[in-house]
Amino acid sequence: MRLTIFATHRGRMLGALASAMTLISGCASIRRPPTTVDAIRRDAVPINAEHRALRDTVIERLVRRVAKRGDRTVDVLMLSGGGQNGAYGAGFLRGWQQRAADSMPRFDLVTGISTGALQAPYALLGTRSAIDTITALYSRAAKSFAPSLDWWFWVRPTGGLVNTTRFDRTIAQTFGGPLRDELRAAFANDQQLVFGTTDYDLGIGRAWSMGDELGTSRESVERTQQLLKGATAIPGIFPPVMIDGHLQGDGGVIENILPLLAFDDYTRLGERLQARGLTEVSVRVWVIMNLWTHGEPKVMKPSSRRTISGRSTSLLFYAHQPATLAALENLARAVSAGVPGMRMQVRVAAIPSEESIFPGANSLFERRFMQRLDSLGFAKAQSAAPWDTLPLNAFTRPDVPPRLR
């Protein structure tokens, strides 16, 4: 998710509105059944239970995957949000998949937030064709799924400013034909895909298992498509969706990656593995950040309340990225030290923070910038050092580029 997109585009979109009043959008107003705050609060009880059950199911399937693999390894891929910056992740996955040595493994669990949720089905399959499809989606994003302005958002309120017809069509194509069958085969083999949304009503993140949602009926396919649409609904730009009586939007509002399992979950996983006679298991967590970990440097105008407000919102978003990654590192240390028979390691690849000031970085689906990110991700994955050593601290700036030293 890119909260800065709205601030960047608000002026030009509203300015263009006056000259395009005759255009009519295909978006429908969003409606919800009547409810109360007490009813929403009561819903938290079954929703919390569902989340616990989801994590239990993930653990059991991971146990079966370890038994099937035979190499006592669990491979988890986490794909972050980042909007158009998903082009970096697309390039990185392609470069990783094509490496001669230390190539991309077959993942047991893939989690995705926002643009990462769109990438996740293809990354789970992991084939050359699937990874190439991700690249193709982002390379033609401006034509294939970039939204257009909903000129009549003020007449038919949808919770967003854009017409997502093209985007909806792309999501529908994701679950059409062979890809849907390939995903079902992967799920039947206990591979898992979990993605996140933000429940605006409860003010929490929600995790959804695509393997459990994507059934064989048309209704289940349409529900999965709606969930993905909600998972990628940039606040104030893309319309949110109603799912089970709750308003769902971009998962990046709550957290920009989805770790899903906590220390207690890994403890239970270790116990279940040992009960099956599976010890000395290595958990490898691979994180692809479809964004930079620190906000872009700026020369601020001290007297401008508007720019200071916008900057504050942007920094609120970026400041928790280092903390999230540091928490993952700490989790890995705790699991390795405290769960018998299990070792855990984390590897992170993030967009270099200096890319944040490159022309097009604050645009919506800017073709040349996305091509640059794709090439950057591919080259990084193909390099001798594809994984980063990051300053996991909001009080430390990443290394200054050599040209400025």
TrEMBL record:
Coiled coil: none annotated. It comes from the Bacteria. A motif (GXGXXG) lies at residues 81-86. Residues 77-264 form the PNPLA domain. A motif (DGA/G) lies at residues 250-252. The keyword Cell cycle does not apply. Keywords: Hydrolase, Lipid degradation, Lipid metabolism. The active site is at residues 114, 250. The keyword Hydrolase applies. This is PNPLA domain-containing protein. It comes from Gemmatimonas groenlandica.
